[in-house]
Amino acid sequence: MTVSDSSGPQPVLILGGGLMGLAIAHQLARRGIPVTVLSRRRSEAAGFVAAGMLAPHAEGLEGALLRLGQLSLSRIPSWVAQIEADSGLPCGLRSTGIVVPFHSANERDAYPTAAFGEHLDREQLVQELPGIHSNWTAGLLFAQDGQIDNRRQLMRALESACVDRGVQFQEGVEVLELIHEQGVLSGIRARDSEGGLISLPCRQTVLCSGAWSARLLPELPVFPVKGQMLSLQTPRGALRRVIFGPGIYMVPRDDGLVVVGATSEPEAEFSEGLTPQGQTRLKEGIAELLPEAIHWPPMERWWGFRPCTPDEGPLLGPSPIEGLLLACGHHRNGVLMASATSELIADIASGNEPRNDLAELMPSFRWHRFST
Questions:
Q1: pTM of the entire structure?
Q2: Which of 117, 176, 218, 224 has the smallest C-beta neighbourhood within 10 Å, fewest atoms?
Q3: pLDDT tens track for 89-118
Q4: Of 319, 161, 131, 158, nearest to 235 (Cα)?
Q5: Of all helices (H) and strands (E), which one includes residue 83?
Q6: Residue 56: is its pLDDT beyond 50?
Q7: What are 2-5's contacts with CB under 8 Å, separation 24+?
């Protein structure tokens, strides 16, 4: 086993090179802190496969999860501006608004976040979503919600911004074990890209390995929920708003591409690949929402694994091991919550007090909340 040179200041290790890992690395680097990102295979990260909805209200979130989503949504414009300034690349942020359709006005009015949206009748719904299926007779327009093109623009811009700020990357590294004694972290053991075993000392590490986080720390209640997706090419302007339907959503990009997702398959665990059943469910969902879209040509099909917890909320902050911080378990809201999460974790890791609005929410997202 190779042991790395421990002379000089030890960087903060980021375990996971997905959206959350890159966002935290970038924020730490902006604070002048040396950072190294360890990544096994960044292409499998949820940030490369998510649809990029910024939708705390359209998702119908409640309680502390809604508040965290709202705080993160309010931070996104300045967060994106930092990334774009450091990278010189666009992130694809768009304030398209999101429409949630319902079968009745009563169903609409009972939605958890109905008070935050504009109430639509059938005529208004059709104005917002021309061609929507006749089964949908009411809706909510959340003009404050939006989207970002994480797959094609945000991830690329974040990588470039990290490089610009001096973040070091070690690709093809699989972290095998956390080294700790008496509850204090001292390093990690890993397998490098050539198959050799390495040991890296560390005093401060952030675990943001997505759906795989519990493999390093089995106490964490994080498990994968597989999702399959596809994209369609539409006539430009055919879909103006994001549609967030039950079990399926349609996200129009500014170049005419529409991202359609996503299945929810907890039983699949880490089973890779597309399935006929999953693709059929997506097609059925398209027909139920916007019948004419079933004729739009498909462009791509892909899948990924959401990192889920029993209450679908993330695990943030201290872990059972001193020196190890958690930023995982964001389920389907990782893109939305990346701005607030990266600020919070970077503050803690750099020894600063988090801003009060985020600090007040930390007890709701502690790792051991399920046991109490």
A1: 0.94
A2: 218
A3: 999 999 999 999 999 999 999 999 999 999
A4: 131
A5: helix 63-87
A6: yes
A7: 2/192, 2/196, 2/197, 2/198, 2/199, 3/198, 3/199, 4/198, 4/199, 4/200, 4/201
